[in-house]
Design goal:
Length: 61
């Protein structure tokens, strides 16, 4: 978990956004379905699609 927090901070995103971005980077057959109760969380989840995760970052995670 610390590695996710560190990389997220380096990228200027929330750890949850990085986690979703990592899942999206795993392939076209992976579709994360995050739950949320607040619109602000939904917007942050959608913004995760714009977070690019490099191969090196994937390996660090």
């Amino acid at each position: 978990m610390e590695q996710v927090k560190t990389i997220a901070q380096e990228k200027g995103v929330a750890p949850t956004q990085l986690a979703l971005a990592w899942l999206l980077a795993q392939g076209d057959d992976i579709v994360p379905i995050p739950g949320t109760k607040r619109r602000s969380y939904l917007e942050a989840n959608v913004a995760a699609a714009d977070v690019m995760v490099t191969q090196a970052e994937q390996e660090r995670i």
